[in-house]
Amino acid sequence: MAAPFPTLLLFPVQPAYGQQRGRPAARHAQQPQASEYPVSEDPSTALSEGLYASLVHPAAPPPIPWWPPAPGWWLVLGVLLLLAMLTPWLVLRWRRRSAIKLRAQQALRDIPTTLTDQQWLTEVNTLLKRLLKQRGDTAATRLYGEQWLDYLCAHYPRPQRRSLKPLAAELYRQTAELTPQQRRELQRELRRWLRHNHV
After folding, report:
1. Which of 10, 16, 72, 105 has the most CB atoms around it within 10 Å of its CB?
2. What is the dihedral of CA 171, 176, 177, 181, to 10 degrees?
3. What is the 8-class DSSP label of residue 143?
4. Nearest-angstrom CA–CA distance, 159 and 75
5. Residues in contact with 135: Cβ distance below 8 Å, sequence separation at least 6, in sequence order
């Protein structure tokens, strides 16, 4: 009778189900934690920090002095000084011209309205040429007729030549006749002329 074949060698004994599940857990428990290993620093980072600490930082620049000022401030100062010197002269000149204009308009109003038309026109014409002579415009004092009207109309804006016409047409007549409306219109135009002329 032959001996039985050993089944242990052909079919190895498998571990129990519980032992298979417990083996990986034991192996996992034996692995060391990540915190147990030393953390190595980057050598280049440590070297950069050391070099930066050894650098000599530049000193802050000194504050900008207020003297001498920039060239632009000298220009502003010169303009202010020029204005300070010119302002009194300009104000005095303006007051003088305003006073002359006021006196000229007052002289026009002072011409008596009771004069005849011929006398009244003569007084008005004489006043205008006297003011022009005081201004130094002697050439205008020799004008008459239409040339005189051309000169008057050329020296103020929007002239009303029709209102000034009596100074050329009626002035040299033997019997000049003006209506009250013509006198008022002529006076109004002469006041406008005086406001726009430095006489």
Report:
1. 105
2. 10
3. -
4. 45
5. 198, 199
- What's the pTM value of the predicted model, to 2 decimals? 0.56
Q: Are 140 and 128 in contact (CB under 8 A)?
A: no
What is the C-alpha to C-alpha distance for residues 151 and 129, in angstroms, rounded to an integer?
Answer: 12
Task: State pLDDT tens for residues 60-91.
Answer: 888 888 888 888 999 999 999 999 999 999 99
168, HSE (Cβ side, Cα atoms, 13 Å):
16
Whether 165 and 152 have beta carbons less than 8 Å apart is answered as no
Other CB atoms within a 10 A radius of the CB of residue 132 amount to: 19
The most distant pair of C-alpha atoms in the chain lies apart, rounded to whole Å, by: 189
User: What DSSP state is assigned to residue 154?
Assistant: T
